[in-house]
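TA notes, week 10

Several of you asked for a full example with nothing omitted. So below is the full record: structure tokens for the whole chain, then the designed sequence directly under it. When grading your own attempts, check the secondary structure regions first.
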């Protein structure tokens, strides 16, 4: 491979020049006669030394007299609770400013056998903050009569406050109640099980209304459209369907909820009503009818969910995948652009190891000013044999449509190099998200872009996990399907580019 024009090959290096050994002539002017020219203004700004943060008062006090502080902690209870009680001996501002590793090292040095995850959980619990209004509600609901003798039943009153388990424990601690976080988590599980049981009973009683649909997606949308249906989370609905004998993945349930909320415009309804009755009478396959429909004049712009909802409202039982394929074949027409997409795709992949989302994002940027749509790009890649899932394409599109502000870019450039390289990728992202100047309400797409700007290519799965931890959404509440999806996405992200 020829070298770049601005590089010099080994054969092009000039021969070594031996300096002349003849003595140099003395300087014409004496040093004392040399005058310094006036200093010219420069754009360079001298860097101000940042003031070092004072050491954590909590850590300093523990280092000075650990045995005294640890002696005030009860010897019974779990290790997480004991470390949390140790931290609660200090005012909230004093337990900031130190890392999990620093506290873990301190405890181990004083022969306290504790794991890193235990220390991290204890710090999370100790640092949990409860908004003032929610704190007042915690107190009111907890003390509201009748007071059940079983603490477990009283906890269930608080689960409607939309607080994490750590925040609930902190809120109860603030009113003098020491409730183990395991009880709170068990109450959450029980509440979900009760909701699933209620949902299962309702679905079983109304199953005869949706049995006539062949498509699972149509069944789920019809189910949500029945009178008396109360919307639950996707996970509860999925588990209830499973108990009722209807197998559906969590992705299918989420897509069905999105389709249920989709409402076509009046213009789309008028166009569909003017063309579909005649087309539906033709003796052809469903795919051919869709193709004929989409080629009818006056077709307004519409998405796949909108077309599917039009068909569903007309009692046409058809899968979303068939509608998507018809839309792509008629509207996208990818074959004409396949060669151009393949060319850019392989040029981007030739640079070495790169995550699939970043590679797609670079491809979208390369073709930004062309007349090729993202749907055409996606289908062209699939025709070329590339394994690009819808979820991966969605992440790349979200990053492509995300804008970065100058102050956000300045922030990531200033802080990213301070993170120790020995940390795991997840802990590096968590450190960035917990930085005091981290952009508010940062999304996974924006964080991806910022990391790409400073040369860090991190998988989407790692970023989503870090965001969940920072937002205090416990990973223990994830379903098996959610874990599998993130594992597959993470593995897909890390695949090396083909040579």
């Amino acid at each position: 491979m020829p070298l770049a024009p601005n590089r010099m090959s080994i054969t092009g290096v000039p021969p070594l020049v031996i300096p002349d050994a003849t003595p140099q002539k003395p300087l014409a002017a004496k040093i004392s006669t040399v005058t310094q020219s006036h200093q010219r203004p420069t754009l360079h700004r001298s860097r101000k030394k940042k003031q070092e943060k004072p050491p954590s008062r909590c850590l300093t006090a523990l280092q000075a007299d650990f045995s005294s502080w640890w002696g005030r902690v009860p010897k019974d209870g779990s290790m997480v609770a004991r470390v949390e009680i140790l931290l609660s001996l200090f005012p909230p501002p004093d337990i900031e400013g130190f890392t999990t590793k620093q506290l873990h090292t301190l405890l181990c040095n004083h022969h306290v056998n504790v794991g890193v995850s235990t220390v991290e959980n204890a710090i999370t619990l100790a640092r949990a903050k409860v908004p003032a209004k929610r704190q007042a509600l915690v107190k009111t609901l907890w003390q509201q009569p009748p007071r059940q003798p079983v603490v477990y039943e009283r906890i269930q009153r608080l689960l409607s406050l939309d607080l994490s388990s750590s925040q609930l424990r902190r809120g109860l601690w603030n009113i003098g109640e020491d409730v183990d976080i395991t009880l709170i988590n068990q109450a959450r599980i029980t509440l979900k099980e009760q909701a699933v049981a209620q949902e299962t009973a309702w679905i079983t009683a109304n199953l005869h209304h949706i049995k006539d649909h062949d498509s699972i997606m149509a069944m789920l949308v019809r189910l949500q459209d029945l009178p008396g249906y109360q919307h639950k989370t996707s996970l509860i609905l999925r588990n209830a369907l499973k108990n009722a004998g209807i197998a559906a993945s969590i992705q299918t349930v989420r897509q069905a909820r999105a389709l249920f909320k989709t409402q076509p415009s009046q213009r789309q309804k008028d166009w569909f009503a003017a063309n579909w009755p005649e087309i539906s009478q033709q003796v052809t396959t469903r795919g051919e009818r869709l193709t004929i429909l989409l080629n009818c004049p006056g077709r307004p712009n519409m998405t796949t969910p909108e077309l599917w909802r039009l068909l569903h409202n007309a009692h046409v039982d058809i899968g979303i995948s068939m509608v998507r394929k018809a839309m792509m074949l008629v509207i996208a027409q990818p074959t004409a652009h396949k060669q151009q997409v393949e060319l850019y795709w392989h040029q981007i992949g030739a640079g070495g190891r790169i995550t699939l989302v970043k590679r797609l994002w670079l491809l979208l940027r390369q073709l930004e000013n062309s007349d090729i749509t993202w749907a055409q790009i996606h289908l062209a890649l699939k025709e070329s044999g590339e394994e690009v899932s819808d979820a991966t394409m969605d992440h790349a599109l979200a990053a492509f449509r995300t804008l970065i502000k100058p102050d956000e870019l300045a922030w990531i450039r200033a802080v990213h190099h301070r993170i120790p390289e020995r940390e795991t990728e997840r802990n590096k992202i968590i450190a960035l998200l917990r930085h005091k100047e981290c952009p508010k309400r940062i999304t996974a797409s924006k964080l991806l872009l910022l990391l790409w700007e400073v040369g860090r290519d991190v998988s989407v799965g790692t970023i989503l996990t870090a965001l969940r931890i920072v937002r205090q959404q416990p990973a223990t509440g994830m379903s098996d399907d959610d874990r599998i999806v993130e594992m597959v996405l993470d593995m897909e992200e890390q695949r090396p580019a083909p040579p």
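The mean pLDDT is 78. Use that as a sanity check on your answer.
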